[in-house]
Every structure is written in C-alpha cells, then in structure tokens.
Amino acid sequence: MQRTKIKELLTGAEVGNDVLLKGWVRTKRGNKYVNFIAVTDGSTIQNLQVVADAEKFPEETLKDVTTGASVAITGELVASQGKGQAYEVIAKTIEVLGKADPETYPLQKKAHSLEFLREIAHLRFRTNTFGAVFRVRNTLAFAVHKFFNERGFVYMHTPIVTASDAEGAGEMFRVTTLDLDNLPRTDEGKIDFEEDFFGRATNLTVSGQLEGELAAMAFSDIYTFGPTFRAENSNTARHLAEFWMIEPEMAFYDLKMNADLAEDFIRYVIRYAMEQNREDLEFLAQRLQEEDKAKPQQERQEMTLLEKLEFVVSNQFERITYTDAIDILVNSPAYKKKKFQYEVAWGVDLQSEHERYLVEKHFKKPVIVTDYPKDIKSFYMRLNDDGKTVAAMDILAPGIGEIVGGSQREERLELLTQRMDEIGIPTEEMWWYLDTRRYGGCPHAGFGLGFERLVQFVTGMGNIRDVIPFPRTPKNAEF
Ligand code: 4AD
Ligand code: MG
What we know:
Blueprint lengths: L5 H4 L8 E13 L3 E7 L7 E6 L16 E10 L7 E12 L15 H6 L8 H23 L3 E2 L5 E2 L11 E2 L26 E3 L4 H11 L1 E9 L12 E10 L3 H22 L1 H16 L11 H10 L3 E4 H9 L2 H4 L15 H12 L3 E7 L15 E9 L3 E8 L4 H11 L7 H8 L5 E7 H9 L20
Parallel strand pairs: 3-5, 6-10, 12-13
Antiparallel strand pairs: 1-2, 1-4, 2-3, 4-5, 7-9, 8-9, 10-11, 11-16, 13-14, 14-15, 15-16
Helix pairs in contact: 3-5, 3-6, 3-13, 5-7
The protein binds 4-amino-1,4-dioxobutan-2-aminium adenosine-5'-monophosphate and magnesium ion (MG).
Subcellular location: Cytoplasm
Keywords: Aminoacyl-tRNA synthetase, ATP-binding, Coiled coil, Cytoplasm, Ligase, Nucleotide-binding, Protein biosynthesis
Subunit structure: Homodimer.
C-alpha cells in the first residue's frame, strides 16, 4: 500500500478506503474500550486521529506508541463521529518505527517556551508553532520565485565567498585556510594573504548586489535569493549573522519604479501565504492572542495577525522623504516628552525606535522613506540634484522596522569614483564593477529584502531566531 500524507487524508478524498499513514505521535489517550492516537506528518498543522480498539490493541501492545515516536498505521479512513475532526482512521495495524523514550524525550505534551525550544532547535520543528512558521517560510520562498519569474526576472546565483565588501560597512566574516597559529607574514609584518587559498583576503558575502548589477546590465531584470552574512555584533530580535536576502536589480528603473516593484512584491508574497497557509496563520494568530492576554492593555495588538496582513495587502504604503520623516519625529509628542533614546536630527540615521514610531504610531501602515542624506548611506547610491541626499529607499514595517533597503544606483562614472575616493573605497580593486559604468551603463535600481524579517512580519513571531531553522547570532552556532 502507498503512504498518503495527512493533509490529503484530511480532505476526505479516500473516505471508505484502507489507507497507510506514516508520521509521529503527538498524543495518545484512551480508556478501557478505545485508544485515540493523534498523528502528525508535517504536511499540515492538523493531526489525524487514529482510533485503536482496546480489544485489538491492548495497552501492552501500544506501550511504545508515545509522544514523539514514529509510526506506520493502516486502517480505514472514516467520517469522524467525534468533535474536532471531520475524518479519522480506524486502525487495523500499528507499527512503531522509532521509539521516543518518554523519560527523556524533551517535547512532552505541555506547552514549552520559545526560549526553551531555541535550545533544542534540532527538535523544535516538531511543535505546532515551528511547524506553522516553517511551512509559511517555505510558501514565502516559493512565492518569491513565482513573483519574479512571472515578471521575466532571471534568478542569478551570486557568490558566497567574495573579495569585496558590497555595503562598505566592514562587517565581514573572513574566509581563510591560513594556519591561524602560524600566520605567514610579509616583510612589513602584515598577514600575507597571497599565501591564502585564493591568493588574497576573502570574506563571506554581505550582499549579492554588486554582482547582481553586473547581471542586470545584460538581462535587464534579475534577482538573487541566497544567504548573506554580517558580523555585526547586534544582539537584537531583528538581527542575524546569517540571513537570507532577496535582491532584485533592474536596468532602466528609477527610484519610483523601484519602490512600486517592492510594494507589489511584498503584497504579492503575503497574499500568496494567506491563500496557501490559512490554517497555519490562524494558528499563529491564535498564539499571539494568547500571548497578548498576559500583557497590559496598552501593549496589546490593535489588530489580529490576519487583520494586519489583510490591511497590508489591501492598502498603499505611505511614501515620505527622510527630511519629512525628521520633521514628523521632531514635532511628535514622543520627541517633546523626551521618549526617544537616540538623537533625531537631519543627517543622523533613523534608529529602530524612530522607524517604529513612524509606522506604528504616526502612519499605522508600512512606510517607504526615500532620499536619505548621502553620508549615512552606501557609496553606490545615486546622488540627487540637491547634492546632499541620495536616491535611497527603506521600507519600514509595523512591528519590524526596516524590512527593505534599496536605491537607484549611481550610473555616472565620475560621480561614483569621486564618492568612492571620498569614502576611501579603492577604485582599482573595483574595476570590474566600474566597467558597468564604462561600457553601456544605464540608469538602474534595486533593493534588498531581509527574508527573515518578512517571515517575522507574516508569522508575527517576535524574535528573528524563531523564523530561521538554525539561527546564527553572536556566541551561538551550536547546531
Ligand atoms: O539595507 P541593507 O544592508 O541593504 C543591502 O544589503 C543592499 N545591498 C540591498 C540592495 O539594494 N540590493 O540590507 C537589506 C535588508 C534590510 O532592509 C533588512 O531587511 C535585511 O536586509 N538585513 C538583515 N536581516 C537580518 N539580520 C541582519 N543582520 C540584517 N541586515 C540587513
Ligand atoms: Mg539598510
């Protein structure tokens, strides 16, 4: 007999037939007449209830059918008499494939805290919460490819190991095969990277953008979707040292077209997850409501998770310039009451508290902030006519803050090299990048969306460590 996934069994398509299901035991309860075994196989948040007649399956036979054990069960799929499920299986055979000793198995019936589950990241996939989160993550990843491919974008694989620092922020993880206990030195006593594997210093990529720009100069529209690495020592609920980024890059786009695309993209992937993962999202929404009950009134969510998502997909994002944002902040009650911890002034970057004020308190919707001062943004952003600001955009989302960073790129060779000189980025090393400005350069733009921040937004999970299977954060890379 062929195994059928539980998601399919629960549609009732095979009712009246004998079926084979395989999965893991969630719970087992029973009395002297009958045992009820809830089984999951990860295909859906729903368990399938298996009914085992106590005459046929006495408790001694079922002793290894404990929470966490893997089982193969055959039986007839029938419409359920009981409440809580539409279909159930009347067991004919039950085989335990892998036991899970109840004395030591950490995931017992009770609810566990997210902090505890983080310490057993190798097992947390098996909980309802992480099952839902990672199914939604999968759908969102698929939706990313679907969105761009429907629009004729070419998926470009950019390198993980690189010699350049795309963001110029110096937050790179070095990649080396040099013997750390015995580093080769040059005559001046510096580490001799010529002896290293690649014959030069290399690092893990912080962004695929620069390589993406090269490809956009041939395919018009491309996107990357891969892991990126930042050695920033930020221990927050929104930073990872290893995160996945989606970076589209489009030739012949200006900043407005870039912002339009980013907005369409975010709405599209959220809508797709709402269609595909309704039950998972309802479960996660319920979870948040439970969490809210423990909070004081003023900290509770105004909207449920699904209401929030529906609102985002059906309303335009707000668009303001950085200069307007500073105005709003300086005139806000929060500023007057000295509620902000960090300085607000033109020329100073927005901190997460400011971003969240703008989206959560002022506009109450996602906001696209454009035209930042050039000195707080990366070297490749296009200088505006005012000579002070660049054609940058950040998209800020409620509960998250920055979810997208992007810009129109500086396509004018002279202005670009001048900027690189000012900041001290060696133009000789970036000759390959500058060649796009020398040969057939054109106006172009792109953005980067932090995939985990998107997953956080859609699932409502408060900590970014809970939306990536194996989070990499400072002092933490055990699994
Ligand atoms: O704003 P960032 O640094 O922009 C870039 O990397 C550009 N090269 C993108 C581009 O224009 N192609 O990063 C983009 C996004 C941020 O908005 C944020 O969502 C996410 O990447 N991000 C992080 N996510 C998790 N952990 C971190 N440490 C992150 N740093 C950035
Ligand atoms: Mg940014």
